[in-house]
Structures are given as structure tokens and as C-alpha cells.
């Protein structure tokens, strides 16, 4: 118990003996703590924003990929119809030439 009393008296004497230094120490500690918390919050917000940007980028990439695939499918379908129409029209032309 005496050790705790001695420690308590020592701290009390140090802080009350020089209040100007005590104020500066408390100010620097609170400034350091608030700067650390602000920096941590900034890094957290930056991380969240980076995740949102990556999510939007992936979504855009998927939409672009789907649009290109749909376009390629449409071109293939139109090409198939064009070939069918050409075959049909050439058969009709050959039949009409034979009949003529």
C-alpha cells in the first residue's frame, strides 16, 4: 500500500508542481490521439471508396461484355438469315431460269 501511496504522491507532485508543462503534455497527447483517429477514419473511407469503385468497374465490365456478346450473337443470327435468304433466292432464280 505504501508503494501505491508513494506513486500517487509522486504523480500528484509532478503534475501540480508545473501546470504549464502538464497542460502542454495533455494538449500534445490529445492532439496526437485526435490526429490518429482522423487518419484512421480517412483510411477507412478511402478503402470503402476504393471498394465501391472496383465494384462499379466490375459491373461495367460485365455489362460491356454482355453487350458485346449480344452484338456478336445478333450479327451471327443476321448472317445466318442472310445465307438462308440467298440460298432461297438463288433456288428460286434457278427454278425460274429452268422454267423459262
Describe this structure in words.
Helix content is 97%, strand content 0%. With 100 residues, the chain is mainly α.
The helix/strand order is HH
Number of helices: 2
Rg calculated over all Cα atoms: 40 Å
Quaternary state of this entry equals single chain
* Helix content estimate: over 70%
Number of strands: 0
Principal-axis shape: rod-shaped
* pLDDT < 50 runs, ≥5 residues: none
Compute the average pLDDT.
86
**Strand portion:** under 5%
In whole angstroms, the N-to-C terminal distance is 126 Å
Q: Main β-sheet, in a few words?
A: none
Q: Supply the helix-strand structural class.
A: mainly alpha
Keywords for this entry:
single chain; 100 residues; mainly alpha; 2 helices; 0% strand; rod-shaped
Summarize the structure.
97% of the residues lie in helices and 0% in strands.
List the helices and strands and how they pair.
Layout: H1 2-17, H2 19-99
Amino acid at each position: 500500500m505504501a508503494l501505491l501511496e508513494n506513486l500517487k504522491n509522486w504523480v500528484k507532485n509532478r503534475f501540480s508542481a508545473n501546470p504549464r508543462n502538464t497542460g502542454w503534455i495533455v494538449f500534445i497527447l490529445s492532439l496526437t490521439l485526435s490526429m490518429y483517429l482522423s487518419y484512421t477514419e480517412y483510411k477507412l473511407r478511402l478503402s470503402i471508396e476504393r471498394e465501391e469503385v472496383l465494384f462499379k468497374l466490375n459491373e461495367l465490365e460485365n455489362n460491356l461484355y454482355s453487350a458485346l456478346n449480344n452484338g456478336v450473337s445478333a450479327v451471327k443470327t443476321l448472317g445466318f438469315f442472310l445465307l438462308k435468304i440467298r440460298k432461297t433466292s438463288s433456288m428460286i432464280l434457278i427454278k425460274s431460269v429452268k422454267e423459262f
